[in-house]
What does this fold into?
Amino acid sequence: MNTKLKLTAWAVLACSQFAQAAQVPTETVNGNIDQRTPLMALTHATIHVNPDKTLEQATVLIQGDRIVGISEDNQVPDDAQVINYRGLHIYPGFIHLDASTGLPEPDKKPPFSWGGKETINSTKPGAYNNNEAIKASYDAAEHFNTDAKANQKLREAGFTVALSHRKDGIMRGTSVLTHLSDGAPELSIIKSQVAQHYSFDKGSSKQDYPISLMGAAALIRQTWLDADWYARQDVMVDLDLAAINQQQQLPKFITVGNWQQNLLADKIATEFATQFMVRTQGDSYQNLTAVKATGQALIVPLKFPKAPEIHDQLDAWNIDYTDLKKWELAPHNPALLEQQEITFALVPDEGPKALGGFLKDLRTAHEKGLSQRAALAALTETPAQLLGAKDLGAVAEGYLANLVITDGPLLSKGTQIAETWVAGQNHTINGRPDLLSGMYELAMKDHSHQFELKREKGKYKLSPVAEDDPYSYQLTTAGQFAKLTVKSDEKEVKLLGLIKDHAINATDGSGWVISKTSDLDADKQTDPTKDQPTQPVIPSPFTAYGMASIDPSDSVLIQNATVWTNEEQGILQNTDVLVIDGKINKLGQNLQAAHDIKVIDGSELHLTTGIIDEHAHIALLSVNDIAVNSSMVRMEDVVNPHDINIYRNLSGGVTAAQLLHGSANPIGGQSALIKLKWGASHPEDLLIDDAKGFIKFALGENVKRSRSQDSIRYPLTRMGVEQVYRDAFTQARAYEQEWQAFNNLSSRAQKRTTPPRKDLAMEATLEVLNQQRFVSCHSYVQSEINMLMHVAEDFDFRVNTFTHILEGYKVADKMKAHGVGGSTFADWWAYKWEVNYAIPYNAALMNNEGVVTAINSDSAEMSRRLNQEAAKAIKYGGLSETEAWKLVTLNPAKLLHLDDRMGSIAVGKDADLVLWSDHPLSIYAKAEKTLVDGVLYFDREQQADLESMIATEKQRLIDLSKASPGQKAPFKSMPPKTYECESITGYHEFDHMFYTGAQQ
Amino acid sequence: MKKVITTTLMMCSMAASALTPAPAAKPVDQVFINANIHVGNGEVLENAQFAISDGKISRAGYYRMALDGSEIDLKGQHIYPGFILASTNLGLTEVDSVKATIDATETGQLNPNVRALIAYNTDSERIPTMRFNGILLAQTTPSGGLVSGTSSVVQLDAWNWEDAVVKADDGLHINWPAEWSKRFDFSTFTMQLKKDDKYTEKTDQIKALLADARSTGHDNNVKLNAVKPVFSGQKKVFIHTNNPKSIIEAISHIKSMGIDDPVLVTGQAAGSVIEFLQEQQISVIINGTHALPQLSDDSIDERYSLPARLLQAGIQTALTYPGSMSSRNLAFAAGSTVAYGLSTEQALQMITGTAAQILGIDDQYGTLEVGKSATFFISQGDALDMRGNVVEQAYIDGRPVELHTRQQELYERYKEKYDQ
It folds into this structure.
């Protein structure tokens, strides 16, 4: 781990040398100097030196803010103040890596405004970055002030130092490491500018861009590139870019919103040859394989949802299996990270309640299998290592005297923190017990009483040992005095005694004594890791249909099917297709295959190549960003391999899709081309190897924001839309020339010259001009379609595809001449003004005119029945069946430049195949089996078993939730999002408001 | 015979232009032979005779009669009852995103007295696209609020709403709220299922409206007057909700008010309360056959198989297709259920015979039986399948209906342009 993180270790010298009532050396003292540094000896304690080493009956010596020695034989120097810590445990103080203690609250997130007036530039005054979410110059130390209240809460949970940063923005500036003592900030700060902090959440920024996850990723990339450029330019000052350059050597922390963002952080870091430490949401268990593969060190909150409240069986109708499963598995997260040998530190979750329940949650994690060793390491040694701190995280000589004192083993139920020592200062939490929990005897002259003594919340609870003991016992203490009341129905005796060495002696000379005879019976508490708690099944993908079992073999022989080749030979009856290593190997009759190759009987079935959806938004975490030119955003950054719609689409015979950016901008983001490989753990596994680059453009009502009354964003007309393109392409050419000029300089001259600023939007736009990236343009009416073709021709490139293109039929001849394809809806119209003249004959007219025509879905629902949508071209326009079938297979493959390997059943092509129960264009056809690259990812034969397995598993979780003690979470569920072109949130009704500007 | 139809079509198309087509004035008398008659009650009469006269069906079956050459031979073709689109905003909404073109939702929560019929726009461009796919009848229905208003059943080829009416003011539409509903949480930017604290208040409003309408007096209250017919059976109650508990609560309450035959308009929720619906003998109109399952763990075929599951439980079930821009796919929604447990004729019944029964127009519409209205169409092939749904001619009350509309006209214009 150390090599991987490449942390700068920093010196320990900055630390305060003062212990009690420490004064700032430069401070003027009004009175006499009272500086003391006594040598303290905490003797006879159980010392947890580090996660691997425990000393019984040993002594810690403390002077000033340091541990000055450990004595295993309890020998202490004569001048030491000795305090007996017998029966107590001493742990290294906990380190909190995700605090914001002592820092001012960030501004509130601006209320989300649906379709209001846009904020295009930063609203922050001063020479700061042009994007308000970049707050890299924020130095937490400059804003730090001691917050005694917050410190107290943290100490109560065992924390002694905190790394604090302001949790606001995408680049959040640097953090400050502080003691959680209540001294002056000058002394509390251990180190300023400890690390850089990041997130994908723009926080309080009022600026519109970025509104998406891929936009946040693009902004990080661009800002880092800007910082490089900034270092070499002298035209402007940007305090944030300057700060980034200054902070280059610091470690980087990023807070992510889910495990998918772990992978995104890793992707970006790899591109820039750096590494993030990642503060997760405690959800890594949902994809351990991929998270582990990042090699990231994790900062993990103990974030355990409460049991979902299910009133009755009908309520279950609304509760998703995934939510139940999250509840079941979240407490296992730390144990799973330990099993996977992932480096992690533990932190409390955000919110005031999380801290109070921290120890309880820690014990829950322990019960679920987190070892004592790992728990302790995650709170002490690991965070110290992640910080590169040489004097934190252990109870050892030379280390800061940061200690957690408990009255029992940390992870045992009922154990309390007695004291938290911060830099040599003792902060009482529950106080050291005068009496230790255990079995006690009150020995009197002629008889004795036995009882159990337990300390709970600073009070003693006594219960008789013998069941038939007629007495009850009560013990209260005041200072060193203890008052015992022994009471039966008949009499009551009060005894006053003096506590000494965990025993109570009579003060009246009567000689009674109360002393401990043994430890609590309850201390049978065994280490739960010994009898490994059962690990619940983790579906992968993390959703109910992740339980489907997929045979990874990619060779198969399909016999006796009606084969729709999409090639010259047309439809072949009673034909076998042999697939070897994911490729179509042979077509013919009575084909033979090696004995170990799986055979599928295709009799009575139709075999086709898989459906390709040219326009999809499934398997995405986010769809739309808002910059007019958003070409720097990449859908590849936000591919989600766990989306249930991948599985649902397989059940409709879809095997590949172009995941497009939305249509909020004339120049949208870069597409991701995927194959629907259900079960893949990493987004990269879905991406089609060597696919060409594509990008979304959009025209018309969406980009001119017709439905927002208050929009000020250019363009507001189709006239402006054209000029956006002409401007962008003109700038891109100029940008290219600028770079060419620079690249043509001698290397010597290059060193003397400021290079042009690398601009990711210009780079992508330039790729379009140079035909290295292909345009799929959302479009409806003929005028705008015509316009874009002219613009493209003027800039000497061709539009690849017009998508939606409902008026393509009006300009099909021009499209043919330009060489652009059309990917349309079968019969959509009337949903907005610009589709008023849409006709369902569009596909047939374009196709007949020689335009490469496809039918797409733009909908996770409709994509499941694209075969039916294709068949509509038979009804509307009379296409032949073989031509109609190509609308959703070979033609989209052509539009995506994948037809050399997909789109037909031919030897050498990818074995993306579907077996249909009926004629594939029939409304009665069901996809029976769907193969991608030869692997059977969907098999309807297994469906009944799978559904009953899901039902059983869900019922088990519901029963478990009902039986679970404690508080229930309010009834709440997160239905899966579905995206369309116009999606912002993924929830249709709210996205609609975004565009209409309506308020909720 | 093919010639006959083509001629009719051509005559009509000349009149068409870009306007919505003119409704034919008079019913025709015609005999068809060798037709496959899909009666709409589950039966198919193959190679049968079908005759219409005075706007009624005069023959449907096998007759020994001399032919005089005027018959139309439909060999290989099919006759279907006009499909019925229940609970739709057809005629009330033109362009979804343009407010000025929408008349579907009145402001306020309790609008029993607003009547879809008078806003039903017979010139809506959407209507002819329905006819083209075989939909000849619709229940034009207000939406929104707790009580949306009153629907009417119309036929889809009329000069004005007075001509269109088949059953005026047939139903009162109640949106029963759900105690738990999905709402957007801005702080987490996620959708959450939250309790509606006003649930009881809302349901009380509905309950009070019904109770006050049932009790005597209030003759000068237009809202209550609009509710009263539900107690005499003149107006049916349609309960719209897609939540299992709301279904149970709404139906139980409506029945307790002495209304025996409320109709439930719902989606996937019906699947959770099948036993209840069966026991209460409730008729159901299912929307969203082409919709995703509600939860990620639901059966992938949940929506496709729901109609079959309801029918198997003996529940009277019809299908509809919400959002009138896509409603022309009603036949294909029905077709989609066939691979998941229904026969083609059962699926057909759900958009013809059964739909007519539920809307209370089955004395005249929904099935092709002698004496009923001659509201039907001829299709080249299987009308539930995209490949076969080619409507050659349609008749409403015996009148030939114009099928050639703006969409066909645009098609032909550009086809011609490119053919040159």
Remarks:
- The CA atoms of residues 140 and 175 of chain A lie 5 Å apart.
